[in-house]
Each structure stands twice: as structure tokens, then as C-alpha cells.
Amino acid sequence: MADPEKVIDEKAPPTGGATQLEHVGNIDNVKGVKKVVEVRNAAYVAATTQSKLDPWSRDSLFLYWCCFVSFLCSCANGYDGSLMTAINAMEYYQHKFSSGTLGSTTGIIFAIYTVGGLIAPWFAGPITDRFGRRGGMFTGAIIICMGTAIIASSNVKGQFIAGRFVLGFGVAILTTAAPSYCIEICPPQWRGRMTGFYNCGWFGGSIPAAGITLGTSKMKSDLSWRLPLIFQAVPSAVVILAVWFLPESPRWLMANERDEEARAFLIRYHGGGDANSPLVELEWHEFKEGIEIDGSDKRWWDYSALFKTRSARWRSLMVLLMGVFGQFSGNGLGYFNTEIYGAVGYDNYMQFVLNLANSFCSAFGAGCGVALADKMPRRKVLVIGTAVCSVMLAINGGLSAKWAQTPDDQKNLNVGRGAVAAFFWFNIIYSFAYTPLQALYPVECLHTNARAKGMAMYAFVVGAISFINLYAGPIALENIKHNYIFIFVGWDLIEATLWYFLCVETVGRTLEELEEIFNTSYPVAASTRKNTVAVKESGAVAVVDQTY
């Protein structure tokens, strides 16, 4: 440790590739203290505190546009969630395909979308590594437009199912490339909000889908279901037109030996044009240490980077947990909202209205989660949020059971309303806890060289669990009805317990610095340790007590 009395020159530019820090043994030895805080990484705090990045500069606004284009990729995925929920209840759709609102045929139509999502990830990783994050987004968007053309022109059930498969294939490629792009272009101090906002694009798709289907539901023709399907291509069309005008990810550029372009990106968008910015120096130093020029990302068939070391296995475990828990916490019930509302007494039109209202409420929950994503510990949010989800589902299931067991002439409307209210609260809490982190947390946990293939693995797991949700869901609701909800009550409690013991905290650290955390014997404990630092009036940072 440095001499406690030593005071370094706060105006000197950082040297050695990272921000210099003053180390002191006692807070009384620090001059000009503005505040004392506990942080997870002192170098990160020093770099972000001293960097003068204007969030309203022209370059920052353009960076927001870049993130918005990736946001549209998430919209394409969210659109389908509300779309099929509503279309499945439409008279002319049922007349055309006679699939029924529940049962195995409906399960196949819903679940074939995820089958495309199960196959696509094995192509998505190599495409995104070989042609860049922009190339992955472009490829996925093209395939979605093809799927839209197939499904919107369907006159037979087989063509409709084929179109759903193609759509799922394209979405899986989009959702592999887009979150990687978003998190890799963001300054670290904006990472949580910007990448959390990406996954809120799900509501940017689901809300318009619910609104459009509400409007077309009264049409007395096949246009009632064809028009909403056509609109599914809109987000992808914008991505196709815009993506090649965006800068490529600096991490991908450096991994492909385009160092000058990568550094120019960092200076312009992370350093506010200052080549000596402490944040630029910190990131550049960590890029050089952490990115392998000849890694497994250069070999399309090689997924060993996900499992070959202890650190890699811990990282992959976090990805797998989010992939499973993020899809199997009861949120899959949302595909069958209209059936759930109908089961507690609401007519067909009110089911559409409630579907739209639920989308708005869920979006509100997700928005609150995004706003706090750079401050709230991931681990605490996941543990508490999942436990509360279990409570809300228990209330919903209990009230639904009471409604079902009460004779029609004795039913109390307040019981049905209470069941719907509990289901709304479940969706709000789930969206607060999971929606911002579903894209953010896996990407944070993955190393740059394994990020695209890791996200492909994540997409595969999401597709597999979604298939179970979408195929088994309508069958279960038809046969065991509200009792299906109680499965998730118990499962969510198990999830909360596993998050407590296994979740590695990632907030407040650079992506490269997390390597040190994952290399420890028990990353969960290491990730929760903090440094006490003093922030000076000048913006300089002094480490008061190094505990990690």
C-alpha cells in the first residue's frame, strides 16, 4: 500500500493504460473530500467520475440512435407475444384454420416459432462473429421479413406454421446480435440503463401489437388477422435500412485486428473526443488484456470458450440460469392472457382490452427497472423479485380456483377482478426484475471472445424453455386449468433460492474487470465485496480501504 500521507497530482493524465489511484489508510489523510462511498471497483469509479462525457452531445445522441436500432430488434420479438395471444381469439382466424383456442394444435402453432429459435442459434453465433454485430442484425431482419411474407399470405395451416418457423429463426439471430451490439457500444456507466432499455423493446413490440389487434378485431374479414401480421415486419424493415449506417462494436473491431477504428470509437463516443480521457485509457487497457486476437470466436464450430476454464463455466452457468428462469417463472402464461381473463368471466372484447392494459402495466414495471439498472444490485433484484412473483401467482391461482369452484349463480365479480389484479401485479414485478436483465445480465457475464456464441447458447435455451411453455401451456390450461399456475408458485421459490447462492453481482464493474471476479474460487462472494473510496471536490478518487 502507498504511503498514507502521499498525495498524487490529480491533474496529471493517467499513465500505464489505466487510471491512477491514491491509496490512503485513513479518511482523515484525504484532502478536499466531497463524499465517501462504498463501490465495487475503485478504478472504474475514478475513470467515470473524471471523464467528462456529455450525455446530450451530438455524438451521445447518435449513440442513443444506435441503441434504438438494436431496440427495434427486441420489438420484433415482443410483437409476436401479444400478436398471437390476440389473433388466437379472433373469429376469422379460427374460421380459416380451425385450430381451437387451446389444445395440442394451438400448442404446435405457438411453439413452432420457438423451434426456429432452437435451430437458429447455431448459425447466429458464427454469423455475428464473422460478419460483425451489424451483420447479425441485418441477417435476422431479412429472415423476419421473409417469414412475415409467408405467414401474412397464408391460406392453409401448413403455410402458417412454416411462416412461424421462419419468424422464430430470424428473431433468434436478431436477439443474439443486437444485445451484444448494444452493450459493447455503451460507455460502462450507461451500460445498465441502455442495455436494459434494449430488452424493454419487447414492450415496444407487444403494446403496438395489442393495440393493432384491438383495432382490427372488429373487422369482418381475414384482414382482422392478416393486417397485424403484416405490421410484424416494420421493426425489421427499419433495421435493414439503418444498420449499415451505424458504427461497428469496438470490441468486435479490436478482436478482428482493427485497433485504430476501435480506439477512434472509444475516443469519440466514450471520451467525448478526449484521447486522454481516463475512461478511454481504462477501457483500452482492459480491451488489450482481455481480447484474444486468435480466439475460438474465429472458428465457427468451436464453442469450447464457453466451458474450457472454471471462469468460463461460471459465466455459462449465469447465462443458463437466466435463460431458464427468465422464461419459466410464470411469464409464459402471458401467451394465453385471453384464456386466463376468459376463465374469470371477461367477454371477448374485454379480453383484448385487458391484454392491452397488461402490456402497458408490464412496460411500466420494466421502465422502472431500467431506470434503476445502473444502481440496483442484480442479485438482490433477482432474489427478491422472483420470491414476490411467487406470492402474486399464489394469490392469482387461489382466487382463480375459488372462481372456478363457485356455481355460476353465486359468483362474486370481485374474486375474478382480484385474480386479474394479482396477475397484473405479477407481470409488473416480473418485468421490473427480469425484463431489463434478460439481455443485460448474460451479455455482462460473457467474455468478449465468447459473447456471440454465448448469446447463441442463451437463445437456444430460451427457445427450448419457450417451446415447453408454448406447447405444454395450452394443453395444461385445458386439462388442469388454474392448477397449472401453482406449478410456478413452487418453482419460483426454488429459483429465488438458487439466485441467492449462485448469482454473481455484475453492477458497477467494467466487462473486462469481471474476469477477475469469475476467476476466484467462489465468484458470488467475490462479487459482493466493496472498496471504500473518497471522492474529492476535484473529482479525483482515493481508495480509503481496499477490501478486494
Automatic annotation (TrEMBL):
<feature type="transmembrane region" description="Helical">
    <location>
        <begin position="136"/>
        <end position="155"/>
    </location>
</feature>
<feature type="transmembrane region" description="Helical">
    <location>
        <begin position="356"/>
        <end position="374"/>
    </location>
</feature>
<keyword id="KW-1133">Transmembrane helix</keyword>
<dbReference type="InterPro" id="IPR005828">
    <property type="entry name" value="MFS_sugar_transport-like"/>
</dbReference>
<feature type="transmembrane region" description="Helical">
    <location>
        <begin position="61"/>
        <end position="79"/>
    </location>
</feature>
<keyword id="KW-0812">Transmembrane</keyword>
<dbReference type="InterPro" id="IPR036259">
    <property type="entry name" value="MFS_trans_sf"/>
</dbReference>
<keyword id="KW-0472">Membrane</keyword>
<protein>
    <submittedName>
        <fullName>Lactose permease</fullName>
    </submittedName>
</protein>
<dbReference type="GO" id="GO:0016020">
    <property type="term" value="C:membrane"/>
</dbReference>
<feature type="transmembrane region" description="Helical">
    <location>
        <begin position="161"/>
        <end position="183"/>
    </location>
</feature>
<dbReference type="InterPro" id="IPR020846">
    <property type="entry name" value="MFS_dom"/>
</dbReference>
<dbReference type="Pfam" id="PF00083">
    <property type="entry name" value="Sugar_tr"/>
</dbReference>
<feature type="transmembrane region" description="Helical">
    <location>
        <begin position="419"/>
        <end position="443"/>
    </location>
</feature>
<keyword id="KW-0813">Transport</keyword>
<feature type="transmembrane region" description="Helical">
    <location>
        <begin position="455"/>
        <end position="472"/>
    </location>
</feature>
<feature type="transmembrane region" description="Helical">
    <location>
        <begin position="195"/>
        <end position="215"/>
    </location>
</feature>
<feature type="transmembrane region" description="Helical">
    <location>
        <begin position="317"/>
        <end position="336"/>
    </location>
</feature>
<dbReference type="GO" id="GO:0005351">
    <property type="term" value="F:carbohydrate:proton symporter activity"/>
</dbReference>
<feature type="transmembrane region" description="Helical">
    <location>
        <begin position="227"/>
        <end position="246"/>
    </location>
</feature>
<dbReference type="InterPro" id="IPR050360">
    <property type="entry name" value="MFS_Sugar_Transporters"/>
</dbReference>
<comment type="similarity">
    <text>Belongs to the major facilitator superfamily. Sugar transporter (TC 2.A.1.1) family.</text>
</comment>
<feature type="domain" description="Major facilitator superfamily (MFS) profile">
    <location>
        <begin position="66"/>
        <end position="507"/>
    </location>
</feature>
<dbReference type="InterPro" id="IPR003663">
    <property type="entry name" value="Sugar/inositol_transpt"/>
</dbReference>
<feature type="transmembrane region" description="Helical">
    <location>
        <begin position="381"/>
        <end position="399"/>
    </location>
</feature>
<feature type="transmembrane region" description="Helical">
    <location>
        <begin position="99"/>
        <end position="124"/>
    </location>
</feature>
